[in-house]
Write a sequence for this structure.
């Protein structure tokens, strides 16, 4: 097992990519702390993950929650070897009609929350630890209506590089895993929450046709990439952005809808 004896924190670990990663980390021998804002899904996730997991109700974008969270982790875990900064939100911010409060909230959760999670975790990290940020293809795609979200994901990459330099004297590696379209609960929220099953299937097919590998990603695809970055398999990999997008950003003309 790749993570035997390791202690990991996964923010937003109660669903989607975070939960899939927690499952894999536990299976690979780690003790895992997960956070979530919803107590019900947090309890369900911990029950599924078993005795090597603990859940902590916390909003990592709230300073008091972070203070309490890391005090609890210090008490329960002592030190950490892995931090997967996964918690984040989306929000529609179309230029010319964006709500300032929505824009600022996306920035606050996705950037401030991510940085101060690592800032709070740093004193608990063992030397040689691994930090992984969850990024996105939206750093590159230029999709309409998501300026704030895209800005945070580009910012995550720049921020991770600076943090990698800060923590280099402790041999702590800092990397970003960047998913493409992935089947998680976030895709059923917002504007897609009210569409029919037929409309949803059409959207699914549209996205699949834009990916060279011809399918959506699964949370487990991203979890395996996070495991690689968390483990000794990537011991000489630092300050990189690992795309997990089926070739969407690297080879877009290989997609089914653009093949000659």
């Amino acid at each position: 097992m790749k993570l035997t004896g390791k202690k990991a924190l996964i923010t937003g670990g109660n669903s989607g990519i975070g939960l899939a990663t927690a499952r894999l980390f536990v299976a690979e021998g780690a003790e895992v702390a997960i956070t979530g804002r919803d107590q019900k899904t947090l309890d369900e996730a911990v029950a599924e993950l078993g005795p090597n997991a603990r859940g902590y109700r916390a909003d990592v974008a709230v300073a008091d929650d972070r203070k309490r969270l890391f005090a609890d982790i210090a008490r329960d875990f002592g030190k950490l070897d892995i931090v997967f900064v996964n918690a984040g939100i989306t929000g529609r911010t179309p230029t010319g009609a964006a709500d300032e409060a929505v824009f600022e909230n996306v920035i606050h959760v996705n950037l401030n929350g991510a940085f101060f999670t690592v800032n709070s975790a740093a004193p608990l990290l063992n030397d040689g630890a691994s930090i992984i940020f969850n990024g996105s293809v939206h750093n590159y795609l230029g999709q309409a209506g998501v300026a704030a979200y895209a800005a945070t994901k580009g910012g995550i990459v720049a921020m991770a590089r600076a943090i990698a330099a800060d923590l280099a004297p402790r041999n702590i590696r800092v990397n970003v895993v960047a998913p493409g379209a992935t089947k998680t609960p976030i895709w059923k929220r917002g504007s897609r929450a009210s569409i029919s099953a037929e409309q949803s299937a059409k959207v699914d097919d549209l996205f699949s046709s834009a990916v060279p590998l011809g399918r959506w990603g699964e949370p487990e695809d991203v979890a395996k990439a996070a495991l690689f970055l968390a483990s000794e398999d990537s011991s000489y990999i630092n300050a990189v952005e690992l795309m997990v997008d089926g070739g969407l950003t690297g080879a877009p003309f290989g997609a089914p809808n653009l093949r000659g």
Notes: The longest helix spans residues 100-121. The first strand starts at residue 7 and ends at 10.
